[in-house]
Amino acid sequence: MSRLAPHRSAPDFRPVLDRIAAEIDATPERGRPADYIPLLAEADPRRFGMAVAEPDGTVYGVGDWRRPFSAQSITKVFTLALVLSMDGERLWRRVGREPSGNPFNSLVQLEYENGVPRNPFINAGALVVTDRLQELTGDAVGRLREFMRAESGNAGLDFDPKVAASETAHGDRNAALAHFMASYGNITTPIPQLLDAYFRQCSIEASCADLALAAGFLARHGTRADGSALLSRSQAKQVNAVMLTCGTYDAAGDFAYRVGLPGKSGVGGGIIAVVPGHCTLCVWSPGLDRRGNSVAGVTALDRFTTLTGLSVF
Ligand code: DON
Predict the structure, then answer these.
(1) What are the residue ranges of helices labelled H in 93-154?
(2) pLDDT at 2 (0 to 100)
(3) From the CA of 230, how far away is ligand 1's center (Å)?
(4) Scanning 83, 108, 186, 267, which has its CA 20 to 30 A from the CA of 67?
(5) Cα 211 to Cα 206: distance, rounded to the nearest angstrom
(6) 36 CA distance to ligand 1 centroid (A)?
(7) Are 43 and 270 in contact (CB under 8 A)?
(8) Which atom of ligand 1 is the closest one to the Cα of 171?
């Protein structure tokens, strides 16, 4: 297939998506669904969906692209954007923006870095961001849901209380991270309340279409679906940059090498990716590699950028 020039209109991506879906369908290696959250372990690794959203809100896709799944850590992009929109640079006193080179739920760097997490996308950093959103709004998850509903146009988008409860029951590591950071004064929300907000945040059910649309502000240089500004152009660049360097944890180097786009994964098997100025993508397949990224998802994004020639490089 010939390469597509940038700025092509929506229908031009459809043959690419069909081709990718056919290739994925013929690939037996799918990884394994996350099993540390028992409810996620039930997902079928053969499922696959992919959506592309254009900056004007046109969205289309292939496979299970309208089927809701557990957004998990993809929501960390939205909480980060909301906090930056309200708080600007102040957040960076409490969380860094360097890749961690460690698994998403690692504790090891926190002690010798004095309770300041490496970046906002590892769990420790996301807990700080949710804490800040709670400080700023008094209702972090309510604001997150409201934002994701507005951007996706899906008024029914919601938390899954069963997934949140499943995580709460297996939440010892996140509780440890939160308590440890509180000992350095880097968490102010009472820990049970913070964990409840964080687990509800992770449990948001959304489809590839919802998430590709909800991330659209990152392709529109910070502009929301209604035309208002969420972030400045510079802040949108910053979020995209942190996604590129930290969005897939200790696989961020490999993801940048293969896909060449800012991306953010979740253990539900979803990955969002951004082609600034052009489109946002979301792919879903529940089977994960050992670093917690969707096997078919990374392959599909790799194929998308290879076939279309679209990347930030
Ligand atoms: O904190 C957790 O363990 C999960 N709720 C979210 C983790 C996640 O999605 C990490 N991503 N790959």
Answers:
(1) 108-112, 123-137, 140-152
(2) 32
(3) 25
(4) 83
(5) 6
(6) 10
(7) no
(8) 3
Which residues lie with the beta carbon below 6 Å from any ligand 1 atom?
72-73, 104-105, 123, 167, 174, 202, 265-267, 292
Q: Where are the alpha helices (DSSP H) in the chain?
A: 14-25, 38-41, 75-87, 108-112, 123-137, 140-152, 161-169, 172-183, 191-202, 208-214, 216-219, 233-246, 252-258, 295-308
User: Is 230 part of a structural domain of the chain?
Assistant: yes
Q: Report the CATH number at residue 229.
A: 3.40.710.10
Nearest to 124 by CA among 109, 141, 138: 109
The residue range of the domain holding 225 is: 14-308
Q: What is the pLDDT of residue 217?
A: 98
- 19 C-alpha vs ligand 1 centroid, how far in Å? 30
For 273, the 3-state DSSP assignment is strand
Q: How far is the CA of 11 from the centre of ligand 1 (A)?
A: 34
Which residue is it, tokens 């930290």?
246
**Residue 134 placed within a domain:** yes
Name the domain count of the chain: 1
- Quickly count: other Cβ atoms within 10 Å of residue 21's Cβ: 21
Contact 299, 289 (CB under 8 A): no
pLDDT at residue 5, as a whole number: 38
- The pLDDT score that the predictor gives to residue 101 is 84
Residue closest to 277 by CA, chosen among 235, 226, 218, 230: 218
For the chain, which ranges sit under pLDDT 70? 1-11
Atom of ligand 1 nearest to the CA of 202: 5
5 located within any domain? no
In a domain, 35, yes or no: yes
pTM of the full predicted structure?
0.95
Residues paired with 229 in a beta bridge? 223
pLDDT reported for residue 8? 44
Residue 184's Cβ-side half-sphere holds a number of Cα atoms within 13 Å equal to 19
